[in-house]
Each structure stands twice: as C-alpha cells, then as structure tokens.
Amino acid sequence: xxxxxxxxxxxxxxxxxxxxxxxxxxxxxxxxxxxxxxxxxxxxxxxxxxxxxxxxxxxxxxxxxxxxxxxxxxxxxxxxxxxxxxxxxxxxxxxxxxxxxxxxxxxxxxxxxxxxxxxxxxxxxxxxxxxxxxxxxxxxxxxxxxxxxxxxxxxxxxxxxxxxxxxxxxxxxxxxxxxxxxxxxxxxxxxxxxxxxxxxxxxxxxxxxxxxxxxxxxxxxxxxxxxxxxxxxxxxxxxxxxxxxxx
Length: 247
What we know:
The protein is an alpha+beta fold. It has a single domain, classed as 4-Layer Sandwich (Phosphatase 2c, domain 1), CATH 3.60.40.10. Helices cover 30% and strands 26% of the residues. The protein contains 7 helices and 10 strands. Strands 1-10-9-6-7 form a 5-stranded antiparallel β-sheet, with helices on one face. The termini are close together.
C-alpha cells in the first residue's frame, strides 16, 4: 500500500522503576509499509533477563514476514512469524543450552496490527492493548484488551509453550485510527471496566498527532506526554505508544 495513505507516530520511554534500578527500557516497537502496513509493540517481561532482546526479535521478525504477505493468508503468516521468532531465540548466543526451557529468559508480550488498505487485523498475546476507532466518535471503537492469568500481575508471553492458545485476533473494517500500547499505558487509556476509553488521555493525543505535520515535532510531543512526571508517578513501567492514521 502507498505510504502516503498512512501516518505513523511512535514513542517509547523508560519507566521510573527501571531508571531507579539502572535497567534499560524493555519495550520495543517497529512498523513497516510494504504491500501491508505492519506495526508491532512488544513488552519484555521485567523478570526476564533478556526481555528486551525477545521484544526486539519478535517485532522485527513479524514485520519482515508480514509486510508483503498475501492478506488472505495473514493469520497463518502471523503464526509462522511467531514460530520463526521463537526459533531465533532457540539458537540465540545467550540461550546457552539452546533449549526451549531457556526461552523464558527472553519473555515478551506482543500486540500488533496489519492492514492492506481495506481490511485490518489486530493480533495479541498477553497484556498491552490495541484500540481501533472507526470514525470521529470516541464511543465507536474496537479493542483488544489485556489478558492476564490467574493473578493480576501474571500475563502471557510468546516464549511460553502455550503461546498458540493465547494468540488472539480482532478483525477490523472501516478503521481510521489505531492505538497500540504496552502495559504501561493501559490504565491511562481505558476506564476501569474497559468499556470506555479515557478521552482525557486519548483525545488530546489523537487531535494533536492528526494535525501536526512535522513528524519530529509530533514524536517529541508524544515522548514528552508519555514521560511527564504525573504519568511516571501513576505507572512506573516502561511506556510505548504507536499511533496510526489511515486514509
């Protein structure tokens, strides 16, 4: 699809907890435009030694495989791309035993969007979230919500053996705007029951990014919004947002 038909602004900031502990930001994102637009956000698990590596590898692998893949076969391609990413981790130099059991050291969630100019598909493992608006009405949206396990602090990762069972899809048509985010932003973006979006957060970002024509200014403003002191106090986790506008 034509790059002129899309606008993508993205930013990622390190959480205050990681800053305090001297740890890097473990979120990663990537977006590409070939025959399809593909965007992915991955959150490396805080408990995983190499979570940032796991996040980077799955984002890059998914984008490479999906960008020119026939859309009618895209779900199978998503399954295959996650399998390829897992295979890369299996052979990674930091996976000393080259064993499936060691994939947990690279644990990361996945939330992504693929679009062919007409139809879209959200794919999702674990927490983080995606919001798709179909027009200018903030009540008219589709969402892929965070998924946790038996405990609120427990989620699912593409490095787990059960990744296929936890891979979810949301099909979209007539989509106009997409928000992809890591877990550090979900509390800002939704009401507590997840039935509504928090317009006080979502609407100003959407309005500004839609109107700002200079990409560097848009990225700087988004970064400052994610990194403001109030946001860091309310949630100390890393924060990543990929905003997409399609024509």
